[in-house]
Amino acid sequence: MKNVSKVKKILESSDKNKIVVDLNEDCNDKGCSVFLFACYVGNTEIVKLLLDYADKHNIILELNKKNTDGIYSVLEAIVENNAEMVKLILDYADKHDIIVELNEKDNNGISPLLATNVSNINNTEIAKSLIDYANKHNIILELNEKKVIEDDRYSILTFAVKNNNKEMVKLLFDYANEHNIIIDINEKDKDEWGISPFIVAFFDPQINNIEIIELFIEYANKQNIILEIDKKKGSNYSPLCLSIINENAKAVKLLLDYADEHNINVKINEVYGKSYIDLATERNNVEIVKLFIDYANKRNIILRIYEGNYFFKNAIIHKNLEIIKLIVMYADEHNIGLDINYNEYRCKKSLLILATENNNIEMVELIINYANKYNIILELNEKDKNEKSLIQIAIENNNTEIIKLLIEYANEHKITLELNETDEKAIKDASTECIELMEKYKDVQTIIKNERIEKEKKEKEKIEKEKEKIARENRKKEIEKRLDKIKILKETLENELSSLLDEMELKEKVDFKEKVDIKEE
């Protein structure tokens, strides 16, 4: 107020002395006119005084005159974030048929409309005033221009989205539609991330505004632009991926519905080493998991749930039985076998070890039931990276229910739990109930072991008897074979002897006849 009074006195004094103050004259080495400097000071009352003074003395203010930084009156008023001052300048311009250059930029490439969207201003009221003025004077505002900040370039729309200003975003889209301006909402801004205005709506968890996303979809549909919902940008994140990371189920549904509407085949299994379902389970979000299962079923896509069981590990860590049931049900429906013995190489823990570590009885029971259903033999003697066995972990957690489940499974499948010195020490330090369970197990194992030894002994005896029987039979067969050979040899000899006797008899007869014949002669 002190400055206002001082300015008022100066103007009154000049009138009294019949001196007209030239409000367009430079008043400093930056090339600011008196009026422009008043805008820079940011005092609306002083600006009003100068406007009234100009009218009173028929001075036409040079509203488009720039200082050495390229800033002019309306831009300065915007930089000061003063909506009232902007309105005063535009009203004065109308009154005096002055066309304010709304597309003119300062030395940093900032136009009035772009200035309304930078983060420290973010003034929708001023933007409306500029648009109203532009429409009134048939000025087409440049919506695709970009502001340069340290070699990075951001569009007007990008700023509006970054500011989470849905009213400003709607204002820009409405203006673009009204004037047939195509805003390239998929175009990457030139910054270290290389992200588009559309992806900005998802990038910041504090933005992730469903209404802003809907405005993009509405504009894209109207202008026949296909939004890149699944395409990675310089950040390697797609809008869909970011929606999952930010746990925005509504945004995920919106994007999947958009994909269906525009026949876009979302690559739900291809996200930098993880699938979308892995990301959703990582965030422990049941609703998003359901959305992807529904989408996969609708599109006949087989979810990549069979590789590494990453989703299973996440669900166990988050103790989310519902997600496990959803995935197991999906796997059953699509005949997908889950490798529940998979040992995650980074933490060297099987699913059963993870479930036991987390003291999750239901998870352990579910894994055992799944294994039984599909005839999978669980590796009960596997150890974690600290060489702790499954049973040792259960004992240290004093979880008798899990110990019972493991013992029952081991007994049912004739698996001997290998108890080393560390396990035995853990048993000694355990609760009474745990000790009783393990002692009972060891007693049962002793009985089973003795029974097994006895059984093996009987089986060995049986095998020996079988061997003797076979040996006897083989000897009998060998003797019979030899007898057969002797019989054949006997018959051969008899036949030969018979032949020989026949020959001898025939010869004797011949000899006798020859003798008779000789005598008769």
Task: Please provide a written account of the structure.
With 521 residues, this protein is mainly α. It has a domain of 126 residues: Serine Threonine Protein Phosphatase 5, Tetratricopeptide repeat (Alpha Horseshoe), CATH 1.25.40. 60% of the residues lie in helices and 2% in strands. The chain is built from 23 helices and four strands. The chain has a two-stranded antiparallel sheet with strand order 1-2. A two-stranded antiparallel ribbon has the order 3-4. Strand 1 and strand 2 form a beta hairpin. Helix 1 packs parallel to helix 3 and helix 11 packs parallel to helix 13. The radius of gyration is 48 Å and the shape is elongated.
**Biggest sheet: strand arrangement:** 1-2
Q: What's the helix count?
A: 23
| Envelope shape | elongated
**pLDDT below 50 for ≥5 consecutive residues: which ranges?**
none
CATH first level of the domain at 1-121 and 138-142: Mainly Alpha
Mean pLDDT: 85
Radius of gyration: 48 Å
Offer a concise description of the structure.
This protein has 23 helices and four strands. With 521 residues, it is mostly helical.
